C-alpha cells in the first residue's frame, strides 16, 4: 500500500473530466455556431442553447446542423409537405403556422445566431 501511494504521489497524476458544451442545461452553448467553434468535430443533433450566456434558467434545446455549409446552423422552423404529387397544391399552404412554443426573440438574441 505504501509503495503504491508513493508511486501515485511521485507521478502527480491528474484526472480531468470536462462535460462537453451543449450536452446539459448547465453547460449550454451560446448558439450552434458557438458549439461548432468550441468542438469542431461536433455532430448535428439536439443541444442545449443559452443565448444570453448568463443564468441557465432560460436555456432551451435546439437542433444544430453542423454539416451544411460549414455547420453552426440553428433550426428554428421545419415544415413537411403533405401533398407531394402537386407542389403548388393548397394542401401544402402554411396558413396558420405557429411554433410549438411562443417565440419573442430580441435583437440582441437574434444577433447571437448564425
TrEMBL record:
Disulfide bond is among the record's keywords: yes
Q: Which InterPro entries match?
A: Fib_collagen_C, Fibrinogen-like_C, Fibrinogen_a/b/g_C_dom
**Could you cite one Gene Ontology molecular function of this protein?**
oligosaccharide binding
Which compartment or compartments is the protein found in? Secreted
Q: Which UniProt keywords apply?
A: Collagen, Disulfide bond, Secreted
Source superkingdom: Eukaryota
Which parts of the sequence belong to the Fibrillar collagen NC1 domain?
A: 1-114
Pfam families the record matches: COLFI
Q: Matching Gene3D superfamilies, A to Z?
A: 2.60.120.1000
Q: Which PROSITE patterns match?
A: FIBRINOGEN_C_2, NC1_FIB
Indicate yes or no for the key word Secreted: yes
Q: Where is the Fibrinogen C-terminal domain?
A: 23-76
- What are its GO cellular component terms? collagen trimer; extracellular space
Entries under PANTHER family matching the protein? INTELECTIN, INTELECTIN-1A-RELATED
Which NCBIfam families does this UniProt record tie to the protein?
Answer: GGGWT_bact (NF040941)
Protein name (record): Fibrinogen C-terminal domain-containing protein
Amino acid at each position: 500500500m505504501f509503495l503504491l501511494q508513493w508511486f501515485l504521489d511521485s507521478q502527480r497524476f491528474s484526472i480531468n473530466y470536462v462535460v462537453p458544451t451543449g450536452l446539459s442545461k448547465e453547460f449550454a452553448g451560446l448558439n450552434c455556431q458557438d458549439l461548432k467553434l468550441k468542438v469542431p468535430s461536433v455532430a448535428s443533433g439536439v443541444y442545449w442553447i443559452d443565448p444570453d450566456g448568463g443564468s441557465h434558467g432560460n436555456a432551451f434545446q435546439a437542433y444544430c446542423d453542423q454539416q451544411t455549409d460549414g455547420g453552426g446552423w440553428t433550426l428554428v422552423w421545419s415544415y413537411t409537405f403533405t401533398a407531394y404529387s402537386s407542389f403548388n397544391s393548397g394542401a401544402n399552404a402554411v396558413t396558420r403556422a405557429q411554433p410549438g412554443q411562443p417565440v419573442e426573440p430580441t435583437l440582441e438574441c437574434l444577433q447571437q445566431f448564425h
